[in-house]
Amino acid sequence: DEDRLIWVAPNSAAEQAGLVWYLSQVDRAESAMLIADYPLSANWENQPPLGLGELNEDLMAELLDNCPRRQRDNLRFRRDRWRELIADDTVLRIVEDGSLVSVHENHFDDLLLEHCPAVSTNWRRVVGSTMAKSFVSNKSPSDQFLFWRLRELIGQGRIACDGELASTRSSDVTIRRLT
Fold first, then answer.
1. SS3 of 122-156
2. Helix axes 81-88, 13-25, angle to 10 degrees
3. What's the pLDDT tens digit per position in 70-108?
4. Which backbone phi and psi does 104 adopt, to 5 degrees?
5. d(CA 101, CA 81)
6. CA separation (Å) from 87 to 81, 91, 92?
7. Looking at the whole model, is its pTM more than 0.90?
8. Phi and psi (nearest 5°) for 158?
9. Backbone angles phi, psi at 101, to 5 degrees
10. How many Å separate Cα 158 from the centre of its chain?
């Protein structure tokens, strides 16, 4: 249909991945795009949204009313990008310089270790601090992903765990960085 509108928050790896999958499924390239890198008045320092899911109805209305529609940038949002992402067989994608890129699963390990002190600390504090630091750099790993990476680092002997970190419900478990 002629009124098709594609929108994406360009700093969200999940939204970019969804977009390139969608583009790989449709034949039409004529759709107008709303790229939500428009600064919103109610966001912190008028920043664009990190994801469309964070917008309430007023912010969504502001975005729909004021953000310019553009033709799809065939270089930035390529239709064949999904096939490339599938072929590289990695589990983690982030946005670098506005583009979706694949990175090794240990990409956030150094940041996790930086926020894991040598004294016992609740694992949720480590994950929360890591998420906050990555948020500032427009990277947004999920808490579930970071929880998995913590478990991997424990298995590698880089972090000690005082208790069993069996699930994200393990609220009283503490961890500490080993040298």
1. EHHHHHHHHHHHHHHCCCCCCHHHHHHHHHHHHHC
2. 120
3. 777 777 778 788 899 999 989 899 988 878 889 999 999
4. -65, 150
5. 10
6. 10, 11, 13
7. no
8. -95, -20
9. -130, 150
10. 25
Place of tokens 């969200």: 12
Q: Report how far apart, in Å, the C-alpha atoms of 72 and of each of 35, 116, 135, 161, 175 are.
A: 9, 42, 27, 48, 46
| Per-residue tokens: 135 | 């948020």
Question: What are 128's two structure tokens?
Answer: 């929360």
- The tokens of 127 are what? 């994950």
**Residue 138 Cα distances to 2, 86, 141, angstroms:** 33, 23, 10
Q: How far apart are CA 139 and CA 78, in angstroms?
A: 21
